[in-house]
Amino acid sequence: MARGKLRIYLGAAPGVGKTYAMLAEAHRRVERGTDCVVAFVEHHERPRTEVMLHGLEQVPRKELEYRGGVFGEMDVDAVLRRAPAIALVDELAHTNIPGSRNAKRWQDVEELLAAGIDVISTVNIQHLESLGDVVESITGVRQRETVPDEVVRRAGQIELVDMSPEALRRRMAHGNIYQPDKVDAALSNYFRPGNLTALRELALLWVADRVDEYLNQYRSEHRVSKIWGSRERIVVGLTGGPEGRTLIRRAARLAEKGAGGEVLAVYIARSDGLTAASPKELAVQRTLVEDLGGTFHHVVGDDIPAALLDFARGVNATQIVLGSSRRKAWQYVFGPGVGATVARESGPDLDVHIVTHEEVAKGRGLPVARGARLGRTRILSGWAMGLAGSVVLALLLNIVDIGLANDMLLFLAVTVAAALLGGLLPALASVAFGSLLLNYFYTPPLHRWTIADPKNIVAIVIFFGVAVSVASVVDLAARRTHQAARLRAESEILSFLAGNVLRGETSLEELLERLRETFAMESAALLERQSDVEPWTCAGRAGFGPVLERPEDADVDMPVGDHMALALTGRVLPAEDRRVLAAFGAQAAVVLDRRRLQEEADQARTLAEGNRIRTALLAAVSHDLRTPLAGIKAAVSSLRSADVDWSEEDRAELLEGIEEGADRLDHLVGNLLDMSRLQTGTVTPLIRAIDVDEVVPMALGGVPEDSVDLDVPETLPMILADPGLLERSVANLVENAVKYSPGGRRVLVSASALADRVEVRVVDRGPGVPDAAKDRIFEPFQRYGDAPRGAGVGLGLAVARGFAEAMGGTLTAEDTPGGGLTMVLSLRSIHGRQPVTESPETASTPAPAHGGPGSAEPERQTLC
Length: 864
What we know:
Catalytic activity: ATP + protein L-histidine = ADP + protein N-phospho-L-histidine
Distance between the termini: 24 Å
GO molecular function: ATP binding; phosphorelay sensor kinase activity
CATH superfamily of the largest domain: P-loop containing nucleotide triphosphate hydrolases
Structural class: alpha/beta
Oligomer: single chain
Membrane topology: Multi-pass membrane protein
Keywords: ATP-binding, Kinase, Membrane, Nucleotide-binding, Phosphoprotein, Transferase, Transmembrane, Transmembrane helix, Two-component regulatory system
Shape: elongated
Transmembrane segments: 380-397, 409-437, 457-478
Radius of gyration: 40 Å
CATH architecture of the largest domain: 3-Layer(aba) Sandwich
Number of domains: 5
Number of strands: 27
């Protein structure tokens, strides 16, 4: 059965109109006669979205009972039995209620796709797994409901539902997203213009990268070499000279003027030995281009202009930035230079910028020789010089008689020229052919193949020997120069590579990408296996279409140790390149080992942290446990003493002291055990729907009755939490607030609803906490200010935050207006007996779970 196709409506924020757009598409499909059903769509009481559901067949939801509540989830079995052509599944990142068929809704969607059903779904950019840290830095909220990026990337179509922040805020103000009583809080928190602008940019950039990835894949599969100027990509050609910094900055300014501009700096190590780049200068330029947001590339190429143009076309560049030549005027007799050659051969698709700099015409100190490796053109030129040049010279000498000695010197000059151009073989041919011409035309008897004078025989033999010797020396020098140049190019690459690896700046994937670029391969992969009989597994890869199963299937197979191999595709490398390839393989193995050692070090660090916590526990409780125990023991000993006749008042006071000490000890041991459970990761909350007004009052039993004012309305929505953990968290917060509140000032415990969250606030009028210490007070064994040792071991707030996060909530500290500290405990709420499935907000950043319609259908952009 053919796999179904996935289409995703991607939005930057809740309320942009993803669900509306999906339903509008469904109506268009139904009008064309397509069998389309609604598998799951949540309208969130938004009238325009609810209206769009009319006229569409809806598969009944599956009712699940969980912790006293009844919730509706998508009935995967019912959809599979119905087997429509297209199923609408809203909220791709939704977490299903425990007891459902799958833990995540995207897993339900995978089952539908595997059954051949096309699926149309929606998701917000903040729910992509790879963007969790970025979204948290923007909104201050860590997304707990995410969908793997690969699931979204595999979609056949991704349609961006876009809306400006101003339009989205107007839609919010008109009541099209939230109920009127929640609009003000949402606009002042999550829906701030800065938040919305940043999330919109994030969505646009992610989609642009996805389109760019698809375009590169298409060009690779169809072998498109012509440049498509879809976005500005500027390649900077570096020589390793000091002018490189000027070129990089100039390219960065050019990139800023174009939408989505990108800078790629490339240094080409020529194998002809004409480059003398400073590794230190290259390192400085690499740092500069990366600081400016570009990338640095190192490529080997015999012909610098051709290699530069091949690289530019390979990355679909639109512009090339080169510096004006540092050659002096006389050095142009050896060729037009790289800049002129690139400009001439760039074609109409590549713009070439020649940038002036302070090093122009100051000279490079380059050797005169053009190159060492003799290419096809030079070899043909050598043959032409050795054969045709000898014929032309013979014709000229037939016109002018200058003597046999001068004739031999001229033929010797032609032979040397042939050796310089084409190497040994053209020079030997020139020697043989020139000797025959000298014998036939200029040695008596003329026009015959015999030599009458023995002296002429000696002269021709000497000519032949000198010519062969000169040709041999020239050819040997060219070969040695080529070897030295290649070794220098290899050393530059290996030095650059080793520096990156030793500094820890290169990941395995980046190293393989560097390897692929260096040898101009299509893909590179590092394969490994446990033993000779185990199958190969891929440890890292780069490029398109890498070999993932057997190294023997690749164009180039380089063993790395006993059970590791590099597999490259694209072309067969010459034997002389395998030495550098082996070095790359060894470095890849080092990077892989370092990554695994880092993972083991992280695990060891976690264990060490656990040991530190346990050691601190033992050290911290040495006094705080003994104090209540000593008080209890003293009171019990006094009561049991037969020497003292205690009055009823004294007896009651001693019993009260025993009870207080036992309660204090119970509270202390409870916090220690709770902290130990949090550190070892054994806290498993039993989440269920509960009422805040039933749990919070129970948490006030450990404080005096007249020390707390309670304001928890009964009309609050139910929340998803563990009653025991919630009670312990609130109790710790209240006890901490009472401890620091001045005499006569009560602590306020209030609760309110914001969007799909319920906030419990514990407000005190104490000395407060500076902003720099607000996060530190939640760390274990932290006692603020000059709190005495008997005030506890400093675990109450750490335990409270740990329990809050275990329940999917947050605990933050804020300043109380007028002085003091406010602890804000934010938990997920339930509306209409249906659990909210997305939570992009906290107490300070409320937002709706999903998008909603506005007054008109939103603008959309269709991708791939």
